[in-house]
Automatic annotation (TrEMBL):
Lineage, opening ranks: Bacteria, Bacillati, Actinomycetota, Actinomycetes, Micrococcales
Name listed for the protein in its UniProt record: Uncharacterized protein
Organism encoding this protein: Aquiluna borgnonia
Transmembrane intervals: 122-146, 152-172, 184-208, 250-266, 293-312, 368-386, 392-411, 423-445, 465-484
Keywords: Membrane, Transmembrane, Transmembrane helix
């Protein structure tokens, strides 16, 4: 009978709607038209649902055999399965009734996976932190020697710099992705590969430049401008980095860092104790130079952030856990300070840092591309004869990179669009021109000739001026990038909202 037929839907089906939306394309006009179609289909589906509900209610009120048959037909068309028989009343069932064995998974014996021991889990969490902070402490010791800090100035610089770096790294270490990978939003989808290699090379170059401060302890043997010991360390780091698997990278770094500390203590006859009484005496405070403390704190802070962000494999860490690691970084830095005069400690630290930088490059991508990125630490080794000319620009470039990366993390509100991190047609483009313009401007500002033209009577050294200019350029371009970041956030949210509406209509 015609009156018992359910109302025919006026809205398109799921496959038809998907076909119509896909045929429109991805232009701005197509997206606007797709929104109109989606809104219209949503209204039609609501009308179809209301009409079907009214028809079902009328059939229930009719109660005739034909109405019941029509209802049964619409139910079977919607859920084409055999309806289960009603379960017997368990309360009225006799006690002797034999029930079938239950088939719920909670009632079956399951094969549980092997539980890890608490000791193994503790080591898995502690080893990355220990390896990272040992290398940071050894590099901080190089900085203290480089800036000629006394014990009291070094201790204060370690405390202030490591604490400040820890607060900055709370933003970077709590993410799943490596900071080098996340820097695609700063460099661009294709620029991230060049930018990551540049970051690894610059961080290695700064540590390599700091080794010159230990020339009083380690006699340098050069051949055509190349230090033979540095070449040997680079060769060892290259070989080990290509052979070691990802699962034991931090174990190798931890073993290497502990080995450097033990070697230095053995050559020094033990760790030289720093007398607290001599540090707080009147004579020590009279020798304290606050400008040295300021520069030392800035150098320690930026070197710590640079090492964690660019030159170490990434492990996601919770904010509270990383906050508790800050005293560990200060303690290891002070411990390394007691062996600063030992031969080979600085060169071994440089080799360990090269190995860690290679591991960091391998985290950027899988396969040969990651291994190729891990070779970026060899760039400063090749440029070793020119290190006097590139040291200042390297400091300026690193400061700009750290400032832009940290500013991006603070300003960006939406989550990163993962498919756009390694493409030229994503939300971040191929090369983000404000970032590369900032890097191009910072290069000449790190050279001594340009610095003399800008500030001819400055009392600051070339490295200090490079740090100041890099920080200024980084802050200025971090502010310039804010409208770009806001536009990217808006585009990502709009696309996610459209996809969400389409998925809901398609029943996905």
């Amino acid at each position: 009978m015609v009156e018992f037929e359910p109302p025919k839907p006026k809205a398109l089906g799921e496959s038809e709607l998907h076909r119509v939306i896909a045929s429109l394309g991805t232009s701005a006009e197509a997206l606007e038209k797709a929104q109109q179609i989606i809104a219209n289909q949503a209204m039609l589906r609501q009308r179809d649902a209301d009409a079907l509900a009214t028809w079902i209610k009328s059939m229930q009120q009719d109660g005739s055999a034909a109405a019941q048959a029509a209802l049964r037909k619409i139910v079977l068309d919607t859920v084409p399965v055999e309806l289960p028989k009603p379960l017997p009343d368990l309360a009225s069932a006799p006690l002797s009734t034999n029930f079938q064995e239950a088939l719920f998974t909670s009632e079956l014996s399951l094969i549980k996976r092997r539980e890890l021991s608490q000791r193994a889990q503790l080591l898995r969490n502690v080893i990355p932190s220990l390896a990272s902070w040992i290398m940071v402490g050894l590099v901080n010791c190089i900085i203290a020697v480089w800036l000629k800090l006394n014990d009291l100035e070094a201790l204060i610089s370690f405390a202030i710099g490591v604490t400040a770096a820890g607060l900055i790294l709370l933003v970077l270490k709590t993410h799943t992705l490596h900071p080098l990978t996340r820097s695609a939003a700063v460099f661009g989808g294709w620029g991230v590969y060049l930018g990551a290699a540049l970051a690894i090379a610059l961080s290695t170059l700064i540590v390599l430049e700091g080794t010159e401060a230990t020339s009083d302890f380690v006699p340098i043997e050069e051949f055509l401008g190349y230090d033979n010991r540095v070449l040997g360390m680079a060769a060892i780091a290259l070989m080990v980095a290509q052979l070691v698997g990802r699962e034991i990278q931090f174990w190798v770094l931890a073993a290497g860092g502990i080995g450097v500390l033990v070697f230095g203590a053995q050559e020094n006859g033990g760790f030289s104790p720093i007398s607290v009484g001599s540090l707080v005496s009147q004579g020590s405070w009279d020798l304290l130079q606050f400008d040295q403390v300021i520069w030392g704190s800035l150098a320690v802070a930026f070197s710590t952030v640079t090492l964690f962000a660019f030159s170490m494999p990434h492990v996601q860490t919770r904010a509270w856990s990383f906050s508790l690691q800050i005293p560990l970084g200060i303690g290891v830095s002070v411990l390394a300070l007691t062996i600063q005069g030992v031969e080979w400690v600085t060169l071994l630290t440089l080799g360990l840092m090269m190995l860690s930088a290679s591991f960091s490059g391998r985290d950027l991508a899988a396969g040969w591309l990651g291994r190729l990125a891990g070779l970026a630490f060899l760039i400063p080794v090749v440029l070793m004869p020119l290190r006097d000319f590139v040291a200042g620009p390297a400091v300026s470039l690193v400061i700009v990179l750290v400032t832009l990366l940290f500013g991006d993390q603070l300003v960006r509100r939406s989550a990163l669009h993962i498919p756009s991190l390694d493409t030229s047609y994503g939300f971040y483009g191929a090369f983000h021109w404000p970032t590369w313009l900032a890097l191009a401007i910072s290069i000449p500002l790190g050279t001594e000739a340009v610095q003399r033209l800008l500030v001819p009577n400055s009392e600051f050294s070339e490295t200090e001026l490079a740090l100041i200019f890099g920080l200024v350029v980084g802050i200025v371009f971090a502010l310039i990038r804010i409208p770009f970041i806001r536009a990217q956030d808006t585009e990502i949210k709009n696309v996610e909202f459209r996809n969400l509406n389409l998925d809901n209509l398609l029943g996905l």
